[in-house]
UniProtKB/TrEMBL annotation:
InterPro entries: H3K4_H4K5_MeTrfase, SET_dom, SET_dom_sf
Residues covered by the SET domain: 7-310
Gene3D superfamilies in UniProt: SET domain
PROSITE patterns: SET
Signal peptide: none
Designated name of the protein: SET domain-containing protein
Any one Gene Ontology cellular component term annotated for this protein: nucleus
Length: 350
């Protein structure tokens, strides 16, 4: 599926901008060009765990949703959404979410959720990242062997999951990684085609605390996941999830794309091929847990289809502020037509 293909567009290499989506023909205004698939991985932030539907991402102005699954900690806007989630997740996935929910609950009671970032923290380089993940793999291998040994014991003997160190936890990272692990387990070949085809950020962690949280989350998951998920609970999968989310994730917001509540983020491989413009010719709208994209003006053959990576008040920034924000958050210097035009105007005015 990824890169996406359609009669209206193709994915091409664009000088200075990596791969992007080009119109294959004239596209009239308001034409839908892509209807996205459900995410390959996502997380709804823990602070919204009682307010956002786990299936369709509905947010009802902060109200606690009534349909609750106490075993997984998920809430739903309706019984129908709950059933869709159960059908998609499957028995194995449901059990994995239960294990994670109970683990987080136990750790939270002991005051072991993630702590603040150290003032001496810094952005880790590739060497530090490789070292952190190598250590995490060694620890995870031990826990997985214990889990396999426990699962193979004769009936009548107590079977317990591998013990997990009492370090701090990050429920949001744990949830994001688990969602990706389950997606990989369900469709490993499709997952590789979609996710591994995306641009990977070699240094996706903004701080050493962030790196440690990802590595520790992987170790925790390796100790509590069912044995059947071990082939998907790997550093290759978890590192890829972090590397692609840095520059490809879409924010999950309430209401519109500029919604006032930032409730989480998700990875949509096909939609990730849209490049950014501060004057986009494509608009987007989240419909449930998927996205819909349409052109907001007539597009000529060969023209690049672009969305805006800016949301809310960010769209009102001036060219200097926009460029600074895009460089800090997305890692590129914007050279769209609007930025070039406004930069030239400001220089002329100065």
């Amino acid at each position: 599926m990824s890169p996406p293909t359609a009669d209206l567009f193709s994915v091409e290499t664009i000088p200075g901008a990596g791969r992007g989506i080009l119109a294959s023909c004239y596209i009239p205004k308001d034409t839908i060009v892509l209807t996205g698939e459900p995410p390959a991985a996502h997380v709804l932030f823990r602070e919204y765990r009682k307010e956002v539907c786990a299936q369709c991402f509905l947010y009802d102005r902060g109200r606690t949703l009534r349909v609750k699954d106490h075993d997984t900690g998920k809430v739903f806007c309706s019984a129908s959404c709950q059933q869709k989630w159960v059908d998609h997740t499957g028995e194995l996935g449901d059990g994995a979410w239960q294990d994670l929910h109970h683990f987080i609950h136990a750790k939270s009671k002991g005051g072991k959720e993630a702590s603040g970032i150290s003032l001496t923290d810094h952005r880790p380089d590739v060497g530090e990242i490789d070292g952190g993940w190598s250590q995490a793999k060694a620890e995870a291998d031990v826990r997985m062997r214990k889990a396999i040994d426990g699962a193979s014991r004769p009936p009548g003997r107590k079977q317990t999951k591998a013990a997990v160190a009492s370090s701090t936890i990050d429920p949001d990272i744990l949830g994001y990684l688990l969602s990706g692990i389950l997606a990989h387990h369900q469709q490993p070949n499709q997952w590789r085609e979609d996710v591994l085809a995306l641009a990977m950020h070699k240094e996706p962690y903004t701080t050493t605390h962030d790196l440690e949280a990802h590595c520790t989350s992987f170790v925790h998951l390796s100790g509590i996941m069912p044995v059947e998920l071990h082939e998907s609970c790997t550093i290759e999968v978890c590192r890829a999830l972090a590397a692609v989310s840095s520059h490809n994730a879409f924010g999950i917001r309430s209401g519109s794309e500029d919604g006032e509540e930032y409730m989480g983020y998700a990875l949509y491989p096909s939609a990730s091929y849209f490049n950014h413009s501060c004057d986009p010719n494509v608009a987007k709208q989240r419909v449930g847990n998927a996205w819909r994209f349409w052109v907001v003006r007539d597009v000529q053959q060969g023209e690049e289809l672009c969305i805006s990576y800016l949301g809310g008040d960010e769209k009102d920034l001036n060219v200097r502020q926009r460029r600074a924000h895009l460089r800090e958050v997305w890692g590129f210097a914007c050279e769209c037509a609007r930025c070039r035009r406004e930069a030239t105007s400001s220089q002329d005015a100065g």
